[in-house]
Design a protein that fits this description.
Its main location: nucleus. The protein has 312 residues and is an alpha+beta fold. 23% of the residues lie in helices and 28% in strands.
Length: 312
């Protein structure tokens, strides 16, 4: 027998009063989330907390003190994050098929954990000087109403008492619990010290008569910002100015990447495509070798921290 509205409101009120619980929901990013510059909050979450949300919500990612202000738009029983959402998406380089897990911390504040298309949590930018020396250890879419829907969301509650941690799936649609677990809780296996030593040793065996440098991939190189800073010593061998360089993979495939900067040369536009096409991850090692100054061409050799990962 269906519960009356008064009974449901009574249950929701009791749940709001249970301060020992954290409330989560996830959203899989669709094209409309980016194109429409807004994202819809799941109905299940709205029924419980919709009335207490203010006109402004605060979003915060791990490892950062920065809070992002986004407008909360309420319309006929639906709630959207709107103005400010696009800036959050752009800054964190969120794209289609990324998965975001929202933790509601009350008072219209949300913690947000971001997973990339490989189901690995992204690296979050620390609030430090952007100019840093790298570690050199050697399709058509459907309508927006259908895309940005409940099909891509779920609400979860988690007890805060770790001795009695209990996860309860509150709302499912097209995704099953096992599928979500594979997405969120099974990133690449932890990187061991032996993994790092093996990759470094392999890269150290590299020799060439041409100028080259060895760069260990940092979070900002392969996530979010997708900007690679080449070492200053190596950058001295590159031409000054803002121009396209060609990156050549081991299979001789080519990528056009925009580079600029002195004394430290940066790879910017186009570098993201190289990273994604080659499946680069944090701690992988790349060797950049100047093949032709005339044609502004660099050969890139990749030494993976986890060699079992496929070379795309």
């Amino acid at each position: 027998m269906e519960r009356s509205k008064s009974q449901e409101e009574h249950c929701n009120r009791k749940r709001r009063q249970q301060d020992k619980r954290f409330y989560f929901f996830y959203k899989i990013i669709t094209a409309s989330c980016i194109q429409d510059r807004r994202i819809k909050i799941p109905n299940k979450f709205i029924r419980i907390f919709g009335k207490e949300l203010s006109d402004i919500a605060l979003l915060k990612v791990p490892s950062s003190s920065k809070e992002w202000r986004v407008d909360v738009k309420k319309d006929e029983g639906h709630i959207w994050f709107q103005s400010g959402w696009h800036e959050f998406v752009k800054y964190h380089n969120i794209s289609v098929s990324h998965l975001l897990v929202f933790r509601y911390d009350r008072n219209s504040s949300f913690g947000v954990v971001i997973f990339d298309t490989r189901a690995s949590e992204i690296g979050y930018e620390c609030e430090t000087n952007d100019l840093e020396e790298p570690c050199i250890e050697i399709g058509t879419q459907t309508s927006s109403e259908n895309e940005n829907s409940e099909e891509d969301s779920m609400t979860i509650t988690v007890e805060s008492d770790y001795t009695n941690q209990e996860t309860e799936a509150r709302e499912f649609s097209s995704l099953q619990e096992e599928q979500l677990a594979n997405l969120v809780f099974k990133p690449r296996r932890p990187v061991s010290f032996a993994d790092k030593e093996r990759a470094i040793a392999a890269a150290n065996k590299f020799t060439s008569k041409k100028q080259f440098c060895i760069v260990t991939m940092r979070p900002s190189f392969v996530h979010k910002r997708f900007v690679l800073n080449l070492p200053i010593a190596f950058s001295k061998h590159l031409q000054n100015g803002d121009y396209d360089v060609t990156l050549r993979g081991s299979d001789r495939q080519m990528w056009k990447v925009r580079g600029a900067g002195q004394p430290q040369f940066r790879l910017r536009a186009g570098w993201k495509e190289f990273v994604l096409d080659n499946g680069l991850e944090e701690d992988d090692i790349c060797i950049f070798e100047i093949v032709s100054m005339k044609h502004k061409q660099l050969k890139v050799s990749i030494f993976r921290i986890q060699p079992e990962r496929s070379d795309n």
